Amino acid sequence: MAMNAREKWLAGGVGVLAALFVGNTMFSSIQSGFDAKKEQIDSLTKKKEEQSLQLTATRVARLKLNKLLPKSLPRLEESATQDYKKWLISLGDDAKLIDTTTVSTGDTSEKDGSFHSYRFKVTGIGTIENATQLLYGFYSKGYLHRITQFQMRPIQNTAEPDQMNISLDCEVLALGIAKDKQEPPKNDANKLAKSLDEYKQTILGRNIFAPTNTPPALEPRKSVEAKIGLRLEHTVEAKEVDPNQRVSFQLLGEVPKGLLIDKDTGKLSWSSNEEGQYKVDVQATDNGIPRKSSQQSLTINVKPLPPTPPAPIQFDVASQAMVTAFLVGSKGPEAWINSKTESKLYKLAKGDQLKLGGVTGVVKDVGANYVEMETEGRVWLIGMDETLADAYSRSKTD
Questions:
Q1: Count of domains in the chain?
Q2: Which of 35, 169, 271, 327 would staple 149 via disulfide (CB 3.0–4.6 Å)?
Q3: What is the largest CA-CA distance in the chain?
Q4: What's the domain range around 187?
Q5: 8 Å CB contact between 110 and 75
Q6: pTM score > 0.90 for this model?
């Protein structure tokens, strides 16, 4: 049966709808396939990018490890511990610690073998200055190490001022890629912003364990007298009010040639052959924390020696000896001289030698009331009851 026009239009519409439905279904199926492929491509691309990033990170990490390798301890445990303990001992010695000891306090290893960690403790006795130098030396070294604990405990009733028990705990790494034995790193680790002197200047001014240090007390100006050719006898006095501190002395600027000072006692040592004034600056420094100094200006006045005083008059036995008699003896005429001090009688004849006290001579002749003497070509006479000393003195002026 033939369809009428209305039925034809209706059938055509149904066909169009059926075609649209089939087309839409086919398009959705195709679109879903494209979307699945795109997601797969995106996933693979992301995975590739992640793998690329991981490779890059691995390369960067390897570069970093290679850069850190010279700072590592050797891979072998025996070499690692020996090398680091030896360096720790030298670190304590450089810091001038007293009774430095170094012990190992444990070690750990990473499961994947990437590194090995060692722990050590350094102990000793010193001041804040020694502690500052110890820390500076530690951070100057390029090892892969860090301080885990640092302690300072004051020691009471010691002969040395400001002494403390100092202990430093640290951890250091040995990388798994390190050599069995290798050279230690250099001292310049680039971790410090200032020099050792700058750190000391900052830290030592903050002594938290003792009162503020007082500088030695010196007179601001003083004059000292010395004599030409004689050794200078002067000791610079420095009063130190802080307990258990020592004072050392030194000369500042230009000093006269040969002038020295004992650094422990302050005693000056010098002699000058020229008269004049010489100015000297002396500095006294204590060993407190921080060290404090005082200065003194000395004027050394070098003067000539005083005139030599006359020699004291000594007693002359000739002043108590005199002629008491003129006789003729076995050798001819004789003069008898009695020395009261010696209780002795001298019997002189021509040609006899005489030495009595300060008088010497030869008898040239003996007269009836005189004796003729000769001393060094000079002829002089002695009369009765005249002392030898008076007659001898008179002959020097005649």
A1: 3
A2: 169
A3: 221
A4: 71-203
A5: no
A6: no
